[in-house]
Amino acid sequence: MVQLLEEGLGDAELQILHTIACAGIRKAVNDPGLVHRLPYYSNVALLRDIAGMEVDSLPAPLLKLTGVFVTIKKRHHTGKDELRGCKGCIVPSEPLYCCAISSAIKSAVHDTRFDPVTSAELEDLTVGVSALTAPEPIASWEDYEVGRHGIILAKGEHKAVFLPEVPIEHGYNAKQTLSKLAMKAGLEPNAWRRGCKYTVFLTSKLTKDFC
Fold it and tell me: pTM of this prediction?
């Protein structure tokens, strides 16, 4: 029986998750059609074909139902990294290792905000993997802690998410974060003040050079 992840990942587990994500990125760049074949893979075959690993070799936390995001950035000579893709799942239906592979592949070649990552870029990339705790509702936006919580805003059919580091990277306070989040969800900037529901989560994150 698959279990939900209740606590964060350790360093060794994050290292394995990062290796798996990088393998997914490399495969996707070399075979752009791979993203469309993902639904036809079994979990075991996905891990074996993409990362060359067996499920039995993975630590238990990577087998649990866990949300994950994979963030790809390209180092720039100005010192400011350029976002090249970010995809993930918040409420997963597959084990963490599967979500990490599919998120990595989609981040590399199926984030419609950006051109697909190319093989020439690989050596200049950093890859971040963020494993999420199960989202929990909060009574008010005032319970949101900038930089600690990832946050999901929902209003009717509109929904958007920020990872914990997003407001820190942009220098947003809580109200600025929620305004930007509302806009990301397709709402007016002040829509967060009334009628929105919020859930928050924590992340275990590792960012390293592509390997």
Answer: 0.89
